[in-house]
Design brief:
With 188 residues, the chain is an alpha/beta fold. 52% of the residues lie in helices and 11% in strands. It is globular, with a radius of gyration of 17 Å. 38% of the residues are buried.
Length: 188
């Protein structure tokens, strides 16, 4: 195992599993390359992780993923931890922090498309559960992408399990841009 030199900060376990799955698809064992993927337990914990792992802590190079709605927490946490991003998302990206428009699951659904995600759900034996959710009054009029997003976020452990499965289902399809960029930054 290599000496830690990079920490990839992600909001939760499903994001961590997706980053690891993409690296595995590329034949990369991140710990062997000195990269640790850290699930922070939410974007509001960025400052603590930057302080512990970043330039004023262990001195690791940092990169990460975040959801668009959490951008202010990420920016503030980086600043409190001693990293000062330039304005806008571009400033965060320059520091290696990449935005998922809604969240990583939404990015994966968009890249794969509804039919491919449905195929993964069916292969996992979860299609009946999805169909049940789709029949709920609050879900009936929603777009299939929205229904799938809701389905992935419900059920114990489902989000984590599908984070890996959806990355594995990409095949020759490029991964969502934020996921590609964070892995590239971690390995550079």
């Amino acid at each position: 195992m290599g000496e830690r030199r990079v920490a990839v900060l992600v909001e939760g376990e499903s994001d961590r599993v997706a980053v690891l799955a993409l690296a595995a698809r590329r034949g990369v064992v991140l710990p062997d390359r000195g990269v640790e993927v850290v699930a922070m337990g939410g974007a509001t914990n960025v400052a603590r992780h930057v302080a512990e792992l970043g330039p004023h802590g262990l001195g690791l190079r940092l990169t990460g993923l975040y959801d668009a709605a959490e951008e202010r927490f990420v920016r503030g946490g980086l600043e409190r931890g001693g990293l000062v991003p330039s304005p806008g998302r571009e400033g965060l990206a320059e520091l290696g922090f990449h935005c998922c428009e809604r969240d990583l699951e939404d990015e994966l659904i968009r890249v794969l498309g509804v039919p491919a995600v449905l195929a993964v759900v069916e292969a996992q034996g979860d299609l009946a559960h999805l169909r049940g959710l789709q029949q709920q009054p609050a879900q009936r009029d929603r777009r299939p992408e929205e229904q799938l997003h809701r389905f992935l976020g419900s059920g114990s452990g489902r989000k984590v399990r599908y984070g890996r499965l959806l990355v594995e289902a990409l095949g020759d399809t490029p991964a969502p841009t934020p996921l590609e960029r964070v892995l590239a930054d971690a390995l550079s």
